[in-house]
Amino acid sequence: MGADIFYPEEFLDVFGSLSKLEQSITLPIFDSQYYRDQSDIGDVRALDHFLAFGIEMWRDPHPLIDLRYMRSTRSDIFQPVPSIEDMLGVITDNAIDPSPFFSLEDYRFVVSDVKVYGSLLIHFLNVAAESDISPLALFDPVYYRAQGLDVPSNGRDALLHFIRVGDQNRVSPSAAFDSLAYEARYGDVMRAALPPLEHYLRIGRFEGRKIFHHAKFGRTELHARATQDWTFKPDPAIWESDTQRLRAKLVASQAAQREQALIVPISVDSASSATAIAFPVHGAPLIDVIIPFYNETETTRRCLGALHKGMGDLAIHPILMDDGSTEDTAILSAVPGVTMIRNEQNLHYLASCNRAFSASSAPFVLLLNNDAFVLPGALQALLDELRSAPEIAAAGPKIVYPSGHLQEAGCALLPDATTVMVGLGSNPDLPRYNYARDVGHISAACLLLKRDMIGNDLYDERFRPAYCEDADLSLRLRFSGKRIRYVPQATCVHELSVSTGKHSKVGRVRQVVINQHKLFDKWSEQLEQDGEVSTFCFYLPQFHPTAENDLWWGKGFTEWTNVAKALPSFEGHYQPHLPSDHGYYDLRCGDVMSEQYALAQRYGLSGFIMYYYNFGARRVLDRPLRNLLSNKGIHFRFALCWANENWTRHWDGGEKAILLEQQYDNETLASVCSDAIEAARDPRAITVNGRPMFLVYRPLLIPDPRLFTDMVRSAFIDEGLGNPYLLYVESMEAINRGVSPQDIGFDACVEFPPQGIGAPYADELSMLKAGWQGHVYDYEESVLLACKESTAPYKRMPAVFPSWDNTARQPLRGTSFIGQTPAAFSEYVRKKADFAYEMLVGEEKMMFVNAWNEWAEGAHLEPDVAYGHSWLQALQDGLAAAKYQRS
């Protein structure tokens, strides 16, 4: 007699009457209780409901069968909805993993010595009821059970217990996966509402996220496949060696530049004798010229001769302040038009200047050392600069040695009150020393002052007998809101300390040190506030889905899509760049931006320059900005940079394969102004001396950039925000064009490395990709190019980049840099911060970084799996070295 035949209805009746254990044996791929827990089916039998409705509603019949997961791995199945036949076919054919917790590959390895017929899943559900095997390399039932939970004693039920209980409670499933470490490393895991291992299996492994061994019990034979087989491990000795090597290269490069420069000695043409000098007498002179001296009669006579030759038509009145000379000075007192004041005893420089200043009355006062020789046109240029703006209180010339080498192009005062003579020993014809600019200090060897801004006293008597008194004067002016200008159109030849050179060098050094301490004690608080270099990082707001990217690149596309799938092109090529601290974040979540800013602040960054995209009536990637402006609780200091270029399929802002074309009609420009004003009203917006900062990425693409900047300024002023501080990014077509910001209506421009500084990599490469046609550059050699002295003859803010590699966007045509290390980056930062300290002043003392999170271009300070926080630490170290350890 044959076996009984059950028809469908009869089977359902019998199945419903069985116990849970009997049901699992009869039909192991259906778990009635699990199905009821996820479906409100009332009194209907679970299997009835699943077969009639649940399967088409994508309801899962078992914890190890995930219909949507299977569909996500094979888009050609379950079309348009699953059927029982399709599901059974996929499971019995072992075509794809039935759930993230069941790996066919891992299970085949486990049962490799057993012949399995039919479904591997059904085999596991039956066999593992009596053994401790696992279908997932990251789940070890013995290890899981040893952590003290009430876990069933077989592999099948232990895995089901972990899915329902253990993973939800962050219990590690094996020595190969530390649940708490994974969740702590990637802050978005908790926001994703998935427990750690499930998140990794569904999302993290496909994005290349790193996993961490759980070392509590020490079982390490099971392990996940590494997503990154190398991590940077800082070694102090290697770091120092790398730093010194690059520093030596920088010093050698600068020395070579100076040796190659053609510098011509300067001969001062002064009168041949005192009788040839005669200054007109003016009832109300325009400029009183105070020249203190002690002996050195001939040098002083030459100083008068140069002054006479260079005064032009200006009404000047020389005041010679004789500080108790022992030489015969009759030849000087006999010069017509000169007033001679004499100290009966040597009171030294400070007291002598104060006495002469009290005797002067002209609206302008020139302080002039007796060994300083003004060249023709210098006085007029200084006077014109002083008159150019009411807040300018002092102006000084380019000061050179008789050899023709630069002595100073203005001076910088550092936070510790030390003075840096800008350009000392350099070629005075270099562009960087040949544009007028604000400075922190100019030495009084030759300094023109507005008398009404000085007050009754010239120098503070606390600095007697001499040294640092002129620095104190500069600080007094600057911290009362006045400006000091360096004027390269004026030149003065300075023989430097002719008179003091005969005095004790040890005594002079001692007095300098004493007065420097006095200067620091007096101004330390203001110097500390004024002395920092503000460091801003370019910030990409791309990391969230948009309708445009869904249309062009596929549903859910973000930059992470490209980043995660990048592969190395050659041996030693660092790819992919995988994020660590914040994981594959979504910028629709404001908490991410607050966390990013907190991390940036921790390492010395001052704020972010957020790219902003406006195509007229269409804003793109603006969700993070909208969230930021509407949520004052997001801690995030920012300025906008209008990224005004076409969007193309090649990610190059070019004219081919255009996806979105940048427009410059009046409506678009007006909307840019409106958005910039809205952002500038935010209390978190970056300002420079109270002026809202706004940047433009490619100004030369604007048909009339001057008209646009005038429009922006007028709009800001009309809205009561004052005159904005406008910067343009010196990138693309602006590189090496030498476009002065002032000529097109901007206050300054910003470097944008590595554009314009790439030094080709010279060594052979061992290729890994067939058909690769990319470009490779040498990081250290590129840094040398970036730090050359012959920079632009206009105000340009320095910038640095930690690395750059757009392989993620251009797999076969990418551009990469080799040799970037945190140590090299730190030295690069130090050198550029040195430039900021020397060439910029006050809140204009800033530096930029490309970039915080350009992950698809390999340019990111944001921590990654391989380097962790090393780039941020290198930035902090470089800034500190520039501030405290100048060399």
UniProtKB/TrEMBL annotation:
Q: Name one Pfam family in it.
A: Glyco_tran_WbsX
Q: InterPro entries annotated for this entry?
A: Glyco_trans_2-like, Nucleotide-diphossugar_trans, WbsX
Gene3D superfamilies the record matches = Glycosidases, Spore Coat Polysaccharide Biosynthesis Protein SpsA, Chain A
Which stretches make up the Glycosyltransferase 2-like domain? 289-396
PANTHER family linked to this entry = GLYCOSYLTRANSFERASE, RHAMNAN SYNTHESIS F
The protein in question is named: Glycosyltransferase 2-like domain-containing protein
